[in-house]
Each structure stands twice: as structure tokens, then as C-alpha cells.
Design goal:
Elements lengths: L3 E9 L1 E6 L7 E2 L18 E3 L19 E6 L2 E13 L2 E6 L2 E5 L2 E5 L2 E6 L2 E6 L2 E5 L2 E5 L2 E7 L7 E12 L6 E20 L2 E17 L2 E12 L3 E9 L2 E11 L2
Antiparallel strand pairs: 1-2, 2-3, 4-15, 5-6, 5-20, 6-7, 7-10, 8-9, 9-12, 10-11, 11-14, 12-13, 13-15, 15-16, 16-17, 17-18, 18-19, 19-20
């Protein structure tokens, strides 16, 4: 089975979800079909590390007013990302993004929503369960929650965490559990980048490394994000094995 990689331009929102080869057999990450006030479908999974308590934010690097819209060129295609509402999880407000789905090599993934929470310079990404069809095998992968960005950290500072996911297929009694250890690092602050002929200033460049482990193997993905102040992500480049996938901002509308 060949390796299949999707880059969803909500970061994961802008985090890649990867169908790894048969030797590794893990899928990361799941996107959610949940919009209710629960734990986003993280049954069988856990999240540790990172922390949601930040200091003084250095600005807003992902404006999340309802109806904010970003259009991205994702390799040879385009994707629109829109803030469509809010939900409350554990007493905190999370902003909900429009649905994304993908298909490649006979495998499809269907996702209804992804959420983002911001507090004190800490940007927390939440996803829920994803329904998948891998060459006729129907399954579900549980979601996760992780700290994507800390805009209040200096250059070279890092944060880390861990989450687990379980993938089950119809007719197969035992679920497949994967553990993802992630580390974020601030690479540059107050940077400048030109994307599609537009120059953005006051940019935070960061790297997110995800090591996905299960019995029999592991895979490592590195994703570089460029967050422009008062605009949002303007470029995301994912390196997974020998593959590279990039999303570039085309235009945006903020409210």
C-alpha cells in the first residue's frame, strides 16, 4: 500500500493527516464530525503536555471572527477555509471551521469540522472523529487536541505534548492505537515572507514535528507554518518522508 498524504489548510487545521504505509499502519490526524459540547470524540484517546495557560500574547496571529475566510493554493488545487461558528468545550469558546474532506489512491477521509481555541498567546487545535474508507474498508479514527502555536515564546523556545488515537474498522474486533508525540519550535519572529506576490511582515515561523508510533514502526512528519499578525497562516509546508506538500495563501476576508 503506498503512502498517501493530505494537507488540510485549516492547519490542521493545517496539520496533515497521513495514511502511512502498511508497515506502519497509522493515520494522523483525524478531523471531526462533532459540534457538540463534549470532548470532540476523543474516545479511546488522550492528550497530555503543551499546556493551555500562556503569558501575554504578542498579537493575534489567527483572527477567528465568524465568517473570516482564507483561500489557499494547495499543490495544484485550491481550498477555502472559513470560520462558521463557535462551540463550548469545558467552559471555553472554540471557533469552528468549515468542513474538509479528501481522497487519494482509493482512500477517502470525511471530516465535518475542526476547532481553534486561543488564550494568552496559546493556540489549541481540536479535532474529533474522522470517518474513513480505505479501499472498501470502512472505519473511524478518534480525534485529538494539541497546542499548535505559542506566540508569546521567544525564538528557539519549544513546547511538546502527546495524544493517542484509535482506528477501528467494521468487522475487525481490535482497534489500532497510535501515539503521537509532538514538539513545536519558534524558528523566527518579526519575519518577512512573500507569498503569491504579496509581502507579509511581522510573521512567526515555526516548526511542528510529529512522531507517530504504533507496534511495528513509526513515522515522522515536520510541518513549517508561517503565521502573519492579524492575518493568519500564509504558508504551510509539510515534509513527510520524501514527500513535500505546500499550502499558500491566495486571498482572505476578515471581519
Amino acid at each position: 500500500m503506498k503512502k498517501i498524504t493530505f494537507l488540510t489548510t485549516i492547519l490542521v487545521v493545517f496539520t496533515a493527516f497521513t495514511f502511512v504505509s502498511c508497515e506502519v499502519e497509522s493515520i494522523d490526524p483525524a478531523l471531526s464530525a462533532n459540534g457538540t459540547n463534549n470532548n470532540g470524540g476523543n474516545t479511546g484517546g488522550g492528550n497530555t503536555g503543551g499546556g493551555n495557560n500562556g503569558g501575554t500574547p504578542s498579537g493575534d496571529y489567527w483572527p477567528t471572527a465568524i465568517n473570516n475566510t482564507w483561500k489557499y493554493a494547495v499543490n495544484s488545487e485550491t481550498q477555502n477555509v472559513k470560520v462558521i461558528g463557535t462551540d463550548i468545550f469545558n467552559g471555553a469558546t472554540y471557533y469552528k471551521f468549515s468542513a474538509l474532506s479528501g481522497a487519494s489512491g482509493g482512500t477517502t477521509g470525511t471530516a465535518a469540522a475542526t476547532w481553534l481555541h486561543k488564550s494568552g498567546g496559546v493556540y489549541t487545535l481540536k479535532t474529533g472523529d474522522m470517518q474513513i474508507n480505505m479501499m472498501g474498508m470502512i472505519g473511524t479514527q478518534t480525534g485529538y487536541e494539541m497546542v499548535l502555536l505559542k506566540d508569546n515564546l521567544p525564538v528557539n523556545a519549544t513546547w511538546s505534548g502527546t495524544y493517542t488515537q484509535t482506528t477501528t474498522y467494521t468487522g475487525i474486533p481490535t482497534g489500532m492505537v497510535t501515539t503521537t508525540n509532538y514538539t513545536g519550535e519558534i524558528l523566527e519572529k518579526n519575519a518577512t515572507i512573500t507569498v503569491n506576490g504579496v509581502t507579509y511582515t511581522d510573521v512567526i515561523k515555526m516548526n511542528l514535528q510529529q512522531q507517530i508510533t504504533m507496534t511495528g514502526g513509526f513515522s515522522i512528519t515536520n510541518t513549517e507554518y508561517y503565521f502573519a499578525k492579524n492575518i493568519g497562516p500564509v504558508r504551510i509546508t509539510m515534509y513527510a518522508g520524501s514527500g513535500i506538500s505546500q499550502s499558500n495563501l491566495v486571498n482572505y476576508t476578515l471581519h
